[in-house]
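Continuing from the previous page of notes. For each protein in this section, the sequence appears first, followed by its C-alpha cells. Read the first protein now.
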Amino acid sequence: MLQAATSVIAIVVSVAALVISVAFGRRQMRQASSYSTAQVAMEMLTRESRSELFMESEDYIIHRLAKEHSPEQGVLALPLNIRKHVQRIAYYYSDLAILTIYGGVSQDLVVTTVHRPVVRAWTILEPYIEAERRKLGSDRYFNFFEHLASICATADVVGMHNRLGLRTFDKPVAARANPDAAQPPDATTAKP
C-alpha cells in the first residue's frame, strides 16, 4: 500500500512538473514572439522611413505626383517608375496599420510617430486610390492605409504627448545658452 501511494505521489509530482514546464515554455514563446514583432515594428518605424528610397518616394508624392499625373487613372495605370513611389508609401503605412490592428505594436506608438506624414500621404494619394477602387469595383484597395490615416487625422496627438510626459524647452536652446545673443527679428517688425 505504501508503495502504491508513493507511486501515485510520484505520478502527481511528475504531471505537475510537466504542466509547469509547458506553462513556462508557452510564456517564453509568447514573449519571444512579442519581442520579434516589436523588433519588426521598430525596424519599420525607424530604418524604412529614413531610407533614401522611402524619402525619394515621399518627396515625389508630395511635390510632383499631382503635377505630373492625373488621379483619374488610378494607381495601377501609372508608369512603373511612378507607381513604385505610390506603392512604397501606401504599403508602408498599410503595414504599420496591420501591425497596430493585430496588436503587434501599440497604436499610440504609431500614431504619435507618423501622424503628420500618414495624413499628408493619404490626402495626396486618396484621389488615386479612390479612382483605383472604382476601376476594381472594390472599396478595399489600401483600406489599411486609409484606416491608419483616419485614426491619425482624428487623434489627439498633443494629449498623447502630454500623457507620455514629453517635455519641451520654453525658449530656443541658443537663447538659453547665450542670453545676450541677438534675438531673431519678430515677423511683424522684420523688413522685406
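Done with the first. The second protein uses the same format. Note its length before scrolling.
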Amino acid sequence: MAEIGPRTFLDLLKQSGLVEPATLKKSLATLSAANEGVPLRLPQIAEHLVNGGLITGWQRDKLLEGKHKGFFLGAYRLLKLLGTGGMSTVYLAEHRLSQHRRAIKVLPRQRVSDKSYLDRFYREGRAAASLNHPNIVRIYDLDHEDDIHFMVMEYVEGTDLQELVCRDGPLSFEQSLDCVLQAASGLKHAHERKIVHRDVKPSNLLAGPDGTVKVLDLGLALMSEGVESLTNVHNERVMGTADYLAPEQAINSHEVDPRADIYSLGCTLYFLLTGQPPFPDGTIAQRIAAHQSRPAPLVNVLRADCPAVLAELCQVLMRKSREDRVQSCKELMAEVRAIRAGLRTAVAAGKQLEQKALAPAGAAQGLVGTGNPRGRPDSLPIPPETGKVPGDSRNGRPHGKPELDRPRPSPPREQLAGIPLRGGAAVLNGAVPQVNTGNSGRGAIPRASGLPAVGAVVSRSSNAVRVRGKSVWLIAGVVGLMFLVLLVVLVVALQLVK
C-alpha cells in the first residue's frame, strides 16, 4: 500500500471519530506554533497525537495503514491489541462514558458461520459470568454488532505464567506454590458450581502486579448439570492443550470431571518449576500418548535443588488414574499450604543458623550432641579453639582441678539435629520437612512425621565444670567437720577420765 500524506492521515482520523474536531484543531495549533511555521510532517503529527494521549500507538498504526473503521464496539473504544488465539482476538478497550478499561474478546468473522465455535464462545461467557471470585477473570457482558460477536471481560494488567517463565526462567518454590494455590482456589469455586475448565495451562493463568493470579479463558468449560456437552453435540472428542491434557480427557472430553483440571494444574506446576511441560518432545499425538502411558521425569531430576516433597506433589497430581490423584481442589489447597509452611520453616531455620555461624566466637551458644566419644556420661565438650579437654593436665593445669573463675569459650554455633544446610535452607535428607495434613486416602502425599524439634539441642557449658568442682569441696568440708566432731569427743572423754 502506498504511503499516505499528512492531509490523508488527518482525514482518516476525522472519519474514525477517535478525536473530537475541536480537540484535534487545538492540538495541531499547538504543534504548529512549536514548529515555528515550518510545514508539519506526518511522523511529527502522528507522534504528537500519541504523546498527547489523543490516540494510541495501535490506532496510529491502523490509520497509517489507511483504515478508519473498527475502532469501536458498542459503548467501547478499542485501544490496542492484547493477543490473538485460536478462536478469538482480545483488545484493550475503554468505555466511552465511564472510561473504565476492559478486555474485549472478539470472535473472528470467519468463525461466525461455524455453529460449534459460536456456541462455545457464548458458552464461555455464560459459564464465566456466573462466577464471582478474586482468582477468576470476571465477565461483564456478551453482545454482538452486526456479525461481530464479542465479550466484555475484566482487564488484568500483568503477564500470563507462560510468558513469565519463558522470559524470566522457572519460578521459585514459593512463587510456584502460591500460583498453584490461587489457581486452585479459583477452580474450586468453578467446580462447586459444576463447571470444569478443561483447558488449565500456564497461558490461561494471569499474574497481576500485586501478585494475584486469575484463571481465564473458560472457552472449553463443561457445565455438567442439565446441559449437553458441545464436544458431544459436535463430535469433538479431544479438546484442550496437548501439553497439559489429562489422560481421560484425551479419550472423551465430555465425560471429564474436576480431577481433569487437577491433572492439568499438576502439569502447570511442573512447568513453573522446570520451565518445560512434562512431555515437551514429539508430535501432538505423541505427547498425548505420553500423558496416557508414561510417567513424567521427576522434577528434581531436571532441577536438583527441588525438595523431594514438592516433586512428589507433581507426581501425585499427574497420576494416570484420576482415582489416584488428589481428589479435589480443597484437598490440593491443604497440601500446598502444608508444603509451603514447611518450606518457610526450613528457610527461616537455615537463616537463623547462618546468622549464628557468623556470630562472635565468645558468644554463649549451645553445642549439638554428637554422642559420647569416651563412653562416659560426664565427658566434657572439646572447645574448637584448643582441641583439648578442660581440666586435662595437657592444658597446663593439674587434672581434676578445673578452672572455675574464667568462663570457657563457647562452641561456634548451634545446628539442627539431622538437618544440614543446603543453599541457605535447612533440608532433611534432601527434602524439606512438612506438616502432616491428616490426608490418608488416595492422593495423599507420603511425608516425614513432622519437623524435627528445633529446640532439641544438647547444651553443655562450663556449668558442668563448676558443679563438679563444688562437689569436691563439699565432700572435703564434710570430712573436715567429722574430724572436728571426733576431736571434741576425745577431749571430753579425757576430761572425764581425769
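What the second structure shows: Residues 382 and 389 are 5 Å apart (CA to CA). The longest strand covers residues 76-84. We return to this in next week's lecture.
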